[in-house]
Amino acid sequence: MIEEAPMAVLFTNDLRATAQFYEKLLGFNAQPYGDGLMMLRENMSFLYKPMRSNSANRGLNVLLRSDNVRQLHKQFHRRGVPIMSELRVVRRAPLSFEVQDLNEATLLFVGEERKFTLHQGGLARQAKK
Known about the structure:
The chain is α+β, with helices and mostly antiparallel strands and 129 residues long.
């Protein structure tokens, strides 16, 4: 039996505005899903459900993995997306940056993990597997 990974569920009091934000600024495809919306882009997906208050999202972080983190970052900058943290390059960690959506949820976009190997002369980046 194949088990599905749990999906993040966020909340909004305005599904229409949320769909517009995600489609126009972040490039997601907002699809009706039950009484809410499924947000889809590349291999990233999560749900938005209706709720009277957006306060349920405050302090909520959603991790979204992408092979194109640098491209997403550039694209979001050009579109005027509210970026909370710039692209971070940390040794032995994947590239990442954070965006806050109109419902106060934080989206953490994370790239593939960086692998390093030692050789004479210092560290070198290992090829993708």
